[in-house]
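Exercise 7.
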Amino acid sequence: MPYKSDDKEEAERLRRDLGRRVRAGREARGWSQEELAEAIGVGSEMLSRYERGVKFPSHLTLVRLAKALDTSTDALLGIEATAYAEAPVAEPPRVVARLSRAQQAAVASMLRELVSPSYRARKR
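Solution. The predicted structure, written as tokens, is:
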């Protein structure tokens, strides 16, 4: 499937917006970049790249960012809860199909986390 012509701009916008949310969350907690970087297992320079919108974190790092900032990956990605409210629960593939590639990847990462043995052990 070929990329749409506006995919590059959408990806850049997603990186910038994610970076702003990460920085705002970090600053709201009074953390330095070094403190958050250590909490999520990356270097402070890499965290700086995320915050500036230069680089997009891996799926695992996105999940770690959400946990460290006590938020959801949806919130970090700017996905509003109402985006899911429109579709019946019985149609998750159709809902996921309407998401951007980055959003689909985030959903897949979250699902992997939810079914992981370590997550189930924490919920007991």
